[in-house]
Amino acid sequence: MIKPLEGVRVLDLSRVLAGPWATQLLADLGADVIKVEKPGAGDDTRHWGPPWHEHGEEKVAAYFLAANRGKKSVAIDFATEEGAALVRKMAADADVVVENFKVGGLRKFGLDAVSLRAAYPRLIYASITGFGQNGPYAPRAGYDYIIQGMGGLMSLTGLPDGEPGGGPMRVGVAVADLFTGMYTVSAILAALYRRQQTGEGATIDMALLDTQLAVLANQASNALVSGKDPGRQGAGHPNIVPYQPFAASDQPIIIAVGNDRQFARFAAIVGHPEWADDPAYSTNPARVSARETLVPMIADIIATQPAAEWLAQLEAAGIPAGPINTISQALADPQAVHRGVRIQAGGGALGEVPMVGSPIRIDGERTDAPLSPPALGEHGHLLRQWLDAADLDRLKTAGIVG
């Protein structure tokens, strides 16, 4: 399959997660992604272990592997004049630049959006920061954990105050970073399409806080419409009942009753068909209002049988339900195995790397980038496109190029 972004070159000046997540997706879609890293150190996440992936003399943290499939690594110290000049040359041949430095951090190197777009008007330049390029918080560094707190997500996540273990809780993965990476890709693809029509590039300003607020989704809408802040409900749903975990006799399962027809079938399965005609429970708004009485009754019933028996009955009745898996169980689930979710990425200096592949399928074909995550500076030979052999050797000797 010819991938959608074949022929698109991306100069990746980003590190940690939001930017690398975006550029990994671009690589999966066929873009040629060149990742510029600091000589001798590289992306911070190379060192965020254990656990470690080791291959020969190479050792890299699992964290780095998760967000850097399909890229080519060159090591350039662009804090030096010659290093910055080299990266500017590379930008001349790029379609897209992605960076996540603090606001203004690249200006002194001539690698900021204003400088590069002035030189190369067709360039699409995407900046990812914590708070955006303007506003009172623009100079601040942005970290996912802080954004989850500031952006309201932690006010929704966790058990209510007063319950054992109650209090705000961070989501288990860096969702502000990940969603920002995804939104960045959407913006880049839109900009590439527009460039086909106009010939002009674009300057893209992405902020973790903006993204976190956007993905509050129905919860933000609830607050805007009602004028009240939603509270933490543990694993329950603010707008649907029953839609949460229940403990079967051997393990918990999730039951997600999405409409009143499903509830009627569910009521029959749990031995209370009369609930479907009871005005206190027959509609979802009524069930939300009666949450405190209905949920405990359901919990007592579910506790009487093993999970497998409930799941079989619920599936037969067309009621969404499922187990709560560990990550290993989830990756070994028959559906995940059938879909080929787990892959062995490429070769190269790091050897074959176990990864979760791209979820995108186009015309029945997977879109996983064939290259494994790179070792630091693994693709330094690519710099011969912009430097002659003598200059490349000289910059290596000076430590400007790794």
Would you mind describing this structure in some detail?
The strands form five sheets. This protein has a six-stranded parallel β-sheet with strand order 5-2-1-6-7-8, sandwiched between helices. The chain folds into two domains: 9-215 and 337-397, Crotonobetainyl-coa:carnitine coa-transferase, domain 1 (Rossmann fold); 243-323, formyl-coa transferase, domain 3 (2-Layer Sandwich), CATH 3.30.1540. The chain is of the alpha/beta class. It has helices spanning 18-28, 62-65, 81-92, 113-119, 144-150, 175-198, 208-214, 217-226, 260-269, 284-289, 291-302, 307-316, 327-332, 334-338, 389-397; strands spanning 9-12, 32-37, 52-55, 58-61, 71-75, 96-99, 124-129, 202-207, 243-247, 252-256, 321-323, 342-345, 353-356, 361-362, 365-366. The model has no long low-confidence stretch (mean pLDDT 96).
Chain-wise SSE layout:
Layout: E1 9-12, H1 18-28, E2 32-37, E3 52-55, E4 58-61, H2 62-65, E5 71-75, H3 81-92, E6 96-99, H4 113-119, E7 124-129, H5 144-150, H6 175-198, E8 202-207, H7 208-214, H8 217-226, E9 243-247, E10 252-256, H9 260-269, H10 284-289, H11 291-302, H12 307-316, E11 321-323, H13 327-332, H14 334-338, E12 342-345, E13 353-356, E14 361-362, E15 365-366, H15 389-397
Parallel strand pairs: 1-2, 1-6, 2-5, 6-7, 7-8
Antiparallel strand pairs: 3-4, 9-10, 10-11, 12-13, 14-15
